[in-house]
Amino acid sequence: MSAQLIDGRGIAGQIRTEVRAEVDRWTAQGHRPPYLAVVLVGDNPASASYVRGKIRASQEAGIMGDTLAFGADVPESELLETVSRLGRDKSVDGILVQLPLPAHIRPDRIIGAVNPDKDVDGLNTINAGRLVTGRAGFLPCTPAGIVELLTRSDIPTCGQHTVILGRSNLVGKPLANLMLRKGLDATVTICHSRTRNLKALARSADIVVAAIGRACFVTEDMVKPGAAVIDVGINRVEDPSRTRGYRLAGDVDFEAVRHKAAHLTPVPGGVGPMTIAMLLKNTLLAAQRHTGL
Residue 189's beta-bridge partner residues? Predict the structure, then answer.
């Protein structure tokens, strides 16, 4: 048996096409295009690359957007004022603060200052509370993208045991709450570094989600035959044979697990593209909500 690969790029492309069509309908009705403001701090090359990709994807979807760039030494107070100003600006629909932030800036404080009705990353504590209690809010993009991968790949979730490896606020915790929602109806176990019998728990899962940031952590003996495996990890592994000196690897031992699982996401090309697609979807939703639709 060889796993059917879940084409994250293809599914993300479908969503981006859907968003573009909806934006075109939206503007044809006389509304201005949705507007996304991205806040970038410092000169981290990876962060700058991610932001360029998000802005480019937004433009392709008909969403207007700008990057507000700050030096790594920007005072926290100035960043707070910028985020607060964007929250009051009626021409701004979505606000995204690119993480990580420099060490002297408290990310919880900055994210907490984002207007929850413009929090298209879904990380503000108010939106986290809305998620837990089942109220309408913005869903974190990566967990929402994982759910889209499952549903659009016709992978059943109702009553299925879903084991999530990782308890972060970015992926593990929100995904657990999403999978518990009516309509998905999964039975969820969250595992972490202190979990006993982790391998046995993973092996009992119908759906395994690996989001721990350790390359090739999930091995063949952690996956039961026929399981669906979603790999959220993206790790740099030294590889002298590559021109750049490294290769990208997920949290799953891809070559070993692909012969055990029924469905498997590749890295890259799996979960990653879905995060941006869901960001576009959230930004359009923010614009619609701001007009009361």
Answer: 163
Q: Is 54 a catalytic residue?
A: yes
Residues 6 or more apart whose Cβ sits within 8 Å of residue 1 = 225, 226, 259, 260, 262
Residue 240 binned pLDDT confidence (cut-offs 50, 70, 90) = confident
Helix, coil or strand: residue 249:
strand
One-character DSSP codes across 163-191: EEE---TTTHHHHHHHHHSTTT--EEEEE
Alpha helices in 169-246 (DSSP H): 172-180, 198-203
CA dist 210 → 7, 94, 283 (Å): 17, 29, 27
Instruction: Report cis status (omega within 30 of 0) of the bond before 100.
Output: yes
**Residues 261-276: what's their mean pLDDT?**
96
Active-site residue among 54, 118, 173, 281?
54
Which candidate in 7, 121, 206, 253 is catalytic?
121
pTM: 0.95
Catalytic residue at 98?
yes
Annotation marks residue 224 as catalytic = no
CA distance 250 to 252: 5
Sheet holding 35-41, edge to edge: 64-70, 35-41, 94-97
Q: Dihedral angle at the C-alpha atoms of 46, 120, 42, 91, nearest 10 degrees?
A: 130
Tokens of 176: 């657990």
Q: Largest alpha-carbon pair distance within the chain?
A: 58
Provide the pLDDT confidence category of residue 293 given band limits of 50, 70 and 90: low
- 93, 98, 160, 253: the catalytic one is 98
What pLDDT, on a 0 to 100 scale, did the predictor assign at position 292? 67
On the question of pLDDT at 166 being above 80, the answer is: yes
Q: 181 Cβ partners below 8 Å, 6+ apart?
A: 134
Tokens of residue 155, six digits: 């992978």
Statement: residue 32 has pLDDT above 60: yes
Query: Residue 245 corresponds to which tokens in the numbers above?
Result: 């000196």
